[in-house]
Write a structure and sequence with these properties.
The chain has 2 domains: 31-115, Rossmann fold (3-Layer(aba) Sandwich), CATH 3.40.50; 141-271, 3-Layer(aba) Sandwich (Rossmann fold), CATH 3.40.50. Helices cover 42% and strands 15% of the residues. It is built from 10 helices and 11 strands. The protein has helices at 8-30, 45-60, 76-88, 107-113, 125-132, 141-154, 172-181, 196-201, 252-255, 270-289; strands at residues 4-5, 35-41, 64-70, 94-97, 161-165, 185-189, 205-208, 226-229, 233-234, 246-247, 261-262. The chain starts with a strand and ends with a helix. Bound molecules: guanine. Guanine (GUN) binds next to strand 4. Its EC number is 1.5.1.5, 3.5.4.9. It catalyses: (6R)-5,10-methenyltetrahydrofolate + H2O = (6R)-10-formyltetrahydrofolate + H(+); (6R)-5,10-methylene-5,6,7,8-tetrahydrofolate + NADP(+) = (6R)-5,10-methenyltetrahydrofolate + NADPH.
């Protein structure tokens, strides 16, 4: 039987609606809008698109958007000065520095400067520690969005076997930590993992976050498993087409024949990331107002 399709787009739209209502309530209470600042350095086309969408979604949710687009030649000092200024600005509740930064900039030093209570990406050491210690904090948007989809689909994750493929700071590692905090049994698989197909076959929950098009095959998936595909990869264009197809890290057509439920690409995890970003910014705003 074909898997249920997890409609991340609809889930994200409902979440954005809820955040919009809460943002209005925040405005009435605080006498100002919650504010999210997004910093983009350079002219990477994909990042330009992401930052544009984040700004639009912020305004649509009734929040103030502060976009800072800096030239490729921006120095470390200039970027750090901007982060300090945003840290000090009471109209700014959340700060996101779009990654990757141009090569000549030190992303770790920039992230370390962000006020942890404005760190809507959850990338500062303070928020990583809070996640590990099961304290309140701000946690990376994509993994939080995946957890929401899993909770909606499966309810309690206690005792379930989860395999996270990928160990990035932004997705794999925090994803694994969130799953452990929810009492799942978690394996983090990566490029050095031996016999990955066999590891994935033991999973009730598969999170694919490696950035390799259609790497996870249908015969790796245990019957009935829940598959969350974080990958967004553009294939080379077919002859005559101007753009290649977007695919995930999972071979969707194969996996949907075996899985119990699966997120599509596009329309699965992607829309959740922005919805959770707005939620994180609003959570930060409420905390700032006490
Ligand atoms: N680049 C791609 N995704 C993200 C994200 O979620 N946050 C940041 N800061 N940069 C990104």
């Amino acid at each position: 039987m074909a898997a249920d399709i997890i409609d991340g787009k609809a889930f994200a739209a409902a979440l954005r609606e809820k955040v919009g209502e809460a943002a209005r309530a925040f405005g009435d209470k605080a006498g100002r809008k919650a504010g999210l600042a997004v910093v983009l350095v350079g002219d990477d086309p994909a990042s330009q698109v992401y930052v544009g969408s984040k700004g639009k979604a912020t305004v649509a949710a009734g929040m103030a958007s502060f976009e800072h687009r800096l030239p490729e030649a921006t120095s470390q000092q200039e970027l750090e000065a901007l982060v300090r200024q945003l840290n000090a600005d009471p109209a700014v509740d959340g700060i996101l520095v779009q990654l990757p930064l141009p090569e000549h900039l030190d992303d770790k030093a920039v992230i370390a400067l962000i006020d942890p209570d404005k760190d809507v990406d959850g990338l500062t050491d303070t928020n990583i520690a809070r996640l590990a210690n099961q304290q309140d904090g701000l946690f990376p948007c994509t993994p939080v969005g995946c957890m929401m989809l899993l909770a909606d689909r499966l309810g309690d994750l206690s005792g379930r076997n989860a395999v996270v493929i990928g160990r990035s700071q932004l997705v794999g590692r925090p994803m694994a930590q969130l799953l452990v905090n929810a009492n799942a049994t978690v394996t983090i698989a990566h490029s050095r993992t031996r016999d990955l197909p066999q590891v994935v076959r033991g999973a009730d929950i598969v999170i694919a976050a490696v950035g390799r098009p259609e790497m996870v095959r249908g015969d790796w998936i245990a019957p009935g498993a829940t598959v969350i595909d974080v990958g967004i990869n553009r294939l080379d264009p077919e002859p005559g087409a101007s753009k290649g197809r977007l695919v995930g890290d999972v071979a969707f057509d194969e996996a949907r024949e075996v899985a119990g439920a699966i997120t599509p690409v596009p329309g699965g995890v992607g829309p959740m990331t922005i919805a959770v970003l707005l939620r994180n910014a609003l959570v930060a705003a409420y905390r700032h107002e006490g």
